[in-house]
Amino acid sequence: MGSAPNAAASAHTSHPAKQGMVQTLSVFIDTLVICSCSAFMVLCADIAKNTELKGLGLIQGVMQEHLGSFGLLFVSVAIVLFAFTSIIGNHFYAEANFKFISTSKRGLFVFRLLAMLMVFVGAQLSLSLAWDLADVFMGFMASVNIVAILLLSNIAVRVLKDYQKQRKEGKNPVFKASDVGINNTEFWK
């Protein structure tokens, strides 16, 4: 959807292709390993066959079946930590993006108030409505990012080729924007 590149963009590295490769590993771990482990735990649990539980309730029941009361405690603590860090992390991304667009202190104050209001409103919504709204907004975000990826793909390929060329030459790759035809950059000179 495009939220992980915010974190990757803030990394200090000698070549952006290095961070790009790290990000592909994080997608692999998150999507294939973590999600697959969760799915296999559900599929291997008897509770999943005999209940109409969905979402978090299902995972709590599955973990309780597999690990006893510790499983229920683990899921509860993990969800609280995940929710808290998600709110803080996404707010940081959004605020950094806002500051890139505008330096207005009044606008930033209004943005922060709206963010707090959205957290409050989101906590009051029914679970199904909250997920439905999240799906819609994530779809918008993914659509915008797909367009950006298509527009930037040529540059990304040139950056990767520059990285591979330097590696073949036995160097520790160092990126210079002008080497791949990118000019007037604030960074990577």
Note down, in words, how this protein is organized.
By secondary structure, this protein is mostly helical. The chain is built from six helices and no strands. The chain has helices at residues 4-9, 16-43, 55-67, 69-101, 105-124, 127-168. Helix 3 (55-67) packs across helix 4 (69-101) and helix 4 (69-101) packs antiparallel against helix 5 (105-124). The two termini are 29 Å apart. The model has no long low-confidence stretch (mean pLDDT 89).
Short description, anyone?
The protein has 189 residues and is an all-alpha fold. It is built from six helices and no strands.
List its salient traits.
189 residues, mainly alpha, 0% strand, globular
Q: What's the layout of helices and strands?
A:
Blueprint: H1 4-9, H2 16-43, H3 55-67, H4 69-101, H5 105-124, H6 127-168
Indicate the overall shape: globular
How big a fraction of the residues is strand?
under 5%
**Assembly state:** single chain
Q: Tally of extended strands?
A: 0
| Total count of helical runs of at least 4 residues | 6
| CA-CA gap between termini | 29 Å
Helix and strand string, N-terminal first?
A: HHHHHH
